[in-house]
């Protein structure tokens, strides 16, 4: 155990970090041994084929000394699919399942459950712990297209019902679900990757719409917090850095008491 690790009693830092390449350099390995971050986030640039990805996940876990250390990626299906090098099958967007649900909810629930189980098994086989999914944001008129086809639809009950199938399907095969972007990015008219969106809807409207899917799925183990400002609760700070949103909205109104992680801290909203 390193001196830094010893000073924390061997506990990992509350950080999920990323890397630039498909392999870990000697310097990165040394850093991970010393810093012991809680987890590793991988993007497209890091994942080329199954053997390479298994080796990368194993090398990180060996460096931090925790065989269960989380390794996460964004793998929703549709355009947000980081396992897209051609070495893995592609999965449909959440909106495609939402369109099916608008015609036949039972068929859509069965389809998204099967898709989630298949995706989860594929990811577990290469050492990944989480797809950072499902997206529970709503698809609303006039909103920025950063969510768009990533959403199941605009009906919060439909979103909650299909989101439940994703959560349960992932848990069935040992993949950690992370519902996002709590308490809801769908109403934002700007992309938080580029600027700081402000949602001005009142509390009653948000409770009945954007917040509802997250409240329905409050038993999901993990959730990712958005970088959106909700002026009805905190007009000055994005949710991810707002004690008001974290405590009064997410922990209070929504009743979520699981693990909270922020969206990427390099986004321009911050």
UniProtKB/TrEMBL annotation:
<dbReference type="GO" id="GO:0005975">
    <property type="term" value="P:carbohydrate metabolic process"/>
</dbReference>
<dbReference type="InterPro" id="IPR036962">
    <property type="entry name" value="Glyco_hydro_3_N_sf"/>
</dbReference>
<keyword id="KW-0326">Glycosidase</keyword>
<dbReference type="InterPro" id="IPR001764">
    <property type="entry name" value="Glyco_hydro_3_N"/>
</dbReference>
<dbReference type="InterPro" id="IPR050226">
    <property type="entry name" value="NagZ_Beta-hexosaminidase"/>
</dbReference>
<dbReference type="Pfam" id="PF00933">
    <property type="entry name" value="Glyco_hydro_3"/>
</dbReference>
<keyword id="KW-0378">Hydrolase</keyword>
<dbReference type="GO" id="GO:0004563">
    <property type="term" value="F:beta-N-acetylhexosaminidase activity"/>
</dbReference>
<feature type="domain" description="Glycoside hydrolase family 3 N-terminal">
    <location>
        <begin position="39"/>
        <end position="268"/>
    </location>
</feature>
<protein>
    <recommendedName>
        <fullName>beta-N-acetylhexosaminidase</fullName>
        <ecNumber>3.2.1.52</ecNumber>
    </recommendedName>
</protein>
<dbReference type="InterPro" id="IPR017853">
    <property type="entry name" value="GH"/>
</dbReference>
<dbReference type="GO" id="GO:0009254">
    <property type="term" value="P:peptidoglycan turnover"/>
</dbReference>
<comment type="similarity">
    <text>Belongs to the glycosyl hydrolase 3 family.</text>
</comment>
């Amino acid at each position: 155990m390193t001196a830094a690790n010893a000073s924390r009693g061997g506990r990992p830092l509350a950080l999920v970090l990323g890397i630039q390449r498909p392999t870990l350099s000697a310097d990165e390995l040394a850093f991970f041994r010393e810093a012991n971050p809680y987890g590793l986030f991988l993007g497209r640039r890091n994942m080329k084929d199954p053997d390479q990805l298994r080796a990368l996940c194993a090398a990180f876990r060996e460096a931090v000394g925790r065989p269960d250390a989380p390794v996460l990626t964004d793998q929703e299906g549709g355009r947000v699919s980081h396992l897209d090098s051609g070495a893995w099958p592609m999965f449909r967007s959440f909106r495609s399942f939402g369109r099916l649900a608008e015609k036949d909810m039972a068929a859509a629930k069965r389809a998204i459950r099967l898709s989630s189980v298949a995706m989860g098994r594929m990811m577990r086989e290469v050492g990944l712990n989480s797809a950072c999914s499902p997206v529970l944001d709503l698809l609303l008129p006039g909103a920025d297209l950063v969510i768009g086809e990533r959403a199941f639809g605009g009906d919060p009950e439909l979103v909650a019902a299909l989101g439940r199938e994703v959560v349960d399907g992932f848990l069935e095969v040992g993949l950690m679900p992370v519902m996002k972007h709590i308490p809801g990015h769908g109403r934002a008219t700007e992309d938080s990757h580029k600027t700081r969106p402000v949602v001005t809807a009142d509390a009653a409207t948000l409770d009945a719409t954007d917040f509802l899917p997250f409240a329905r799925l409050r038993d999901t183990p993990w959730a990712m917090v958005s970088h959106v400002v909700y002026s009805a609760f905190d007009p000055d700070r994005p949710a991810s850095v707002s004690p008001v949103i974290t405590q009064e909205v997410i922990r209070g109104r929504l009743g979520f008491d699981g693990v909270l992680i922020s969206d990427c801290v390099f986004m321009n909203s911050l």
